[in-house]
Design the sequence.
């Protein structure tokens, strides 16, 4: 690791994955740089979401999955036998397509992760502080500070999605995975989430799956184009969109298919 | 343009006919229930009183009340649910939350479905063989409750699974992704949000348990037994007991010269017990729903 090249927070080496007999990922090798926003683009069924879900191994909850190859997060192979999934998922949080706040109060949503991982009870002073800090970080504090006991599921979608991001922060994650976080939101909501991503950039490594090429273009540092389970091209976002190397990338960006 | 053609008129007519037929069937469902209740209560009226509930049958069961049978039914219902509810709910949690789709879980699911279809008289014979004779419990409240529990178990499993499955997967995903274990997910999110459905399913089994005669006939119910009146703890689990369903059967078929109102009065008590339990379940459901956060 030198100062010149940013360190990699996620690396994969020849990663292949099968759902039953269907191969969803084929020999994916790549490196995601620390503290940047990287977008994953490609047509439906190309394996973007599958790849994303590999990074906290939550894939394994969705049925019969076989994986080959290596994933290193912060230099540690997450398929090593001594890996604790609980600790891994603390460090690698995920945001979903549809905001999915838990059916609890706003306050409890944010401290949920802490309570799950705490031994014994948490002091109220401590949790109050965590809630304020997390909500401030996602810019919800001023709107919600007077109704922290209210239901999280009653918020506007945009607020719900920000809350879902805030919910990850008390666990001090290294990586935040976002699976089309704006596809349920309107233009304003999308803008707000994108701005939030820029706010969080630097402190967290953000990986975002998106269907929206314009979104990838305006809100990520690097982009990865995938097709049929393969990684086709990975470069700086402006290079990928302006000077794609692979003809398949070029055609996708031009909108010839997808 | 846009005018009615004969085809459109015919479609509209069919639409109206269909609506009325479906509506009539829905109403037809309620009518028998109301008629039954009205018929029973009007015939039973002369006998209905608090004393009827809390005195034992006397005079060859022609006079007195239904106390020992009423208390027996309560014992059987409560005992059998105490056995079947925990087992059924826990089994359903396993099947819905932990089990993956494999030959093993498929066999369990198949067993649940088939067990639900077994006629109650077969359960009765099983109970007689397994609990009364093999396990040496003799004819007792315990053996009869166990038999009833086995009968209600598959239904409780099915209804609990349904309630658990109604909790959106996205809640579980949210939990897993902050590193919650399955048990933490179940305890903090899944159970609190499905408990109203689970309890409703369990309490609805009260009516089935209270109404069955066959399974208890060979395993623990007797024609007649005298117990201290007004004492809620009059029965011992190793005792045999009377039960309302069985008592009704006895009075209508075995007792000659019983007052005409007597069987109706027994039926009203049985029905009232069941309706009371159902009303309880509905109000519990309403209460728990109102606390739900989604």
Sequence:
């Amino acid at each position: 690791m030198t100062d010149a090249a940013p360190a990699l927070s996620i690396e994969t080496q020849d990663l292949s994955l099968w759902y039953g007999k269907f191969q969803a990922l084929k020999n994916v090798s790549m490196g995601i740089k620390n503290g940047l926003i990287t977008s994953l683009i490609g047509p439906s069924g190309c394996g973007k979401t599958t790849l994303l879900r590999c990074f906290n191994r939550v894939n394994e909850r969705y049925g019969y999955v076989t994986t080959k190859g290596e994933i290193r997060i912060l230099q540690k192979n997450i398929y090593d036998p001594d890996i604790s999934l609980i600790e891994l998922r603390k460090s690698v949080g995920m945001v979903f397509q549809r905001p999915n706040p838990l059916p609890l109060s706003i306050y409890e949503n944010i401290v949920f992760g802490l309570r799950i991982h705490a031994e014994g009870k948490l002091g109220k002073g401590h949790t109050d502080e965590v809630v304020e800090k997390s909500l401030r970080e996602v810019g919800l504090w001023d709107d919600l500070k007077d109704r922290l006991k209210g239901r999280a599921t009653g918020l506007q979608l945009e607020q719900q999605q920000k809350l879902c991001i805030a919910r990850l922060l008390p666990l001090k994650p290294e990586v935040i995975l976002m699976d089309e976080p704006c596809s349920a939101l309107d233009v304003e909501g999308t803008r707000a989430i994108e701005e939030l991503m820029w706010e969080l950039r630097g402190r967290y490594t953000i990986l975002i799956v998106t269907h929206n090429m314009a979104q990838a273009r305006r809100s990520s540092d690097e982009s990865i184009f995938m097709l049929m389970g393969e990684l086709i091209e990975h470069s700086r976002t402006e290079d990928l969109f302006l000077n794609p190397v692979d003809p398949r990338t070029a055609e996708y960006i031009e909108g010839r298919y997808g | 343009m846009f005018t009615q053609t004969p085809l459109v008129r015919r479609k509209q007519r069919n639409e109206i006919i269909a609506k009325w037929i479906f509506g009539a069937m829905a109403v037809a469902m309620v009518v028998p229930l109301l008629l039954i209740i009205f018929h029973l209560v009007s015939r039973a009226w002369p006998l209905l009183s608090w004393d009827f509930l809390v005195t034992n049958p006397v005079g060859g069961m022609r006079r007195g009340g239904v106390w020992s049978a009423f208390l027996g039914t309560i014992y059987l219902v409560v005992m059998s649910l105490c056995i079947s509810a925990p087992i059924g709910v826990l089994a359903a949690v396993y099947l819905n939350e932990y089990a993956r789709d494999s030959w093993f879980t498929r066999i369990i699911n198949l067993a649940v479905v088939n067990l639900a279809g077994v006629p109650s008289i077969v359960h009765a014979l099983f109970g007689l063989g397994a609990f009364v004779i093999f396990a040496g419990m003799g004819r007792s409240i315990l053996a009869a409750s166990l038999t009833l529990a086995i009968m209600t178990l598959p239904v409780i499993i099915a209804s609990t699974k349904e309630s658990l499955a109604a909790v959106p997967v996205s809640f579980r995903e949210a939990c897993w992704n902050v590193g919650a274990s399955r048990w933490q997910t179940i305890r903090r999110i899944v159970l609190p949000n499905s408990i109203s459905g689970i309890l409703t399913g369990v309490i609805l089994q009260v009516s089935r348990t209270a109404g069955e005669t066959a399974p208890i006939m060979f395993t623990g119910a007797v024609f007649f037994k005298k117990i201290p009146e007004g004492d809620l703890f009059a029965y011992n689990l190793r005792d045999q007991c009377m039960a309302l369903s069985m008592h009704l059967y006895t009075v209508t078929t075995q007792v000659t010269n019983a007052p005409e109102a007597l069987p109706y009065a027994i039926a009203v008590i049985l029905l009232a017990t069941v309706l009371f339990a159902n009303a309880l379940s509905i109000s519990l459901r309403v209460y728990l729903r109102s606390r739900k956060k989604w």
User: Anything to note?
Assistant: The first helix of chain B runs from residue 6 to 44. The two ends of chain B are 47 Å apart (CA to CA). Residues 6-47 of chain B form one domain. The interface with chain A takes residues 100-101, 168, 170-171, 173-181, 184, 188-189, 192-193, 292-294 of chain B (CB under 8 Å).
